[in-house]
Amino acid sequence: MTNITNRQKGILLAFIGVLIVTPDSLLIRMVSLDTWNLLFYRSLFPGVVLLIGFFVLFKKKSFDYFYNIGLPGIANALFIVGANFTFIYALAITDVANVLVMISLVPLITSLFSVIFLKEKPELITWISMLVCLFAVIFIFYDSIEVGRFLGDFYALLCAFCVSISLTILRSYNEINFVPSFIFGKLLTAVFALPFVTSFVIMDFDLLFTFLMVFTVGLSMVFVTLAPQYISSPEVGIFFLLETALGPLWVWFFINEQPSMHTMIGGVIIICIIFTHSLYMIKKEN
């Protein structure tokens, strides 16, 4: 990456990171583990592999990197824990498309947190975008209430808030290497889930699919965590639209889980609004 600009580095990191994570929802759907067992192994495998890889790469300096995350790193790890829990619980009780549509709100929520915590002045287009997306979310929620998926959609929305706060922290302290914070967050999730694990026996395809999550939620989030060092949070957030677009397609193609018409209509509205808003904010910052 020595021959490309910092901005190109950030874009490449964000794109690769989100692209790798797109099959994650499909893997979750294909395992037969219950919610707590899945949460445990989905956090333990990436956390341990990344921890070992980090110490192999940085050796004795690794301790300094972990120490230097400070309170911002600990706070970020806690919101990663929140995102892990809410994402898994959302997928357990609602459709993949519904969950990923809510996740697509990350760039807009991140912009809102930038206004609140970073004291950035809100643009009129931001308020208009939030209002339109709010109506689209209500439209999806209304359909979910009728078919009993409201709680799952709500968990997905909480997940989007956790991810947005995490990105805001990364943006506020971009001088810190937050990869140790992400590793800590994954291991902490496994610790919280440990008392509720019903069986430590994992075999065959369950073992294969959960180990593949080392890449989909481990390696991918390392790239996403590093990206805000080079580009802004809204720029990173816009790449989550790639997951919203491709994630349901993976699930639809392999296991025929088709999103509802309300979700498709609301999702298209939200994606278009956020894409337009994010492009405007990126152009304004440059």
Q: How does this structure look, described?
A:
The radius of gyration is 18 Å and the shape is globular. Helix 6 runs antiparallel to helix 13, helix 6 packs parallel to helix 14 and helix 8 (124-147) packs antiparallel against helix 14 (261-285). It contains 14 helices and no strands. The two termini are 22 Å apart. The chain is mostly helical and 286 residues long. The protein has one domain (6-285). The model has no long low-confidence stretch (mean pLDDT 86).
Helix content: over 70%
Number of contiguous helices: 14
- Which shape, going by the Cα principal axes? globular
Mean pLDDT: 86
Name its key features.
286 residues; mainly alpha; 14 helices; globular
Overview in brief:
This protein has 286 residues and is mostly helical. It is 81% helix and 0% strand.
List strands and helices in order, with pairings:
Blueprint lengths: L5 H16 L2 H7 L4 H24 L2 H8 L1 H24 L2 H8 L2 H12 L6 H24 L2 H23 L6 H15 L10 H23 L6 H6 L1 H16 L5 H25 L1
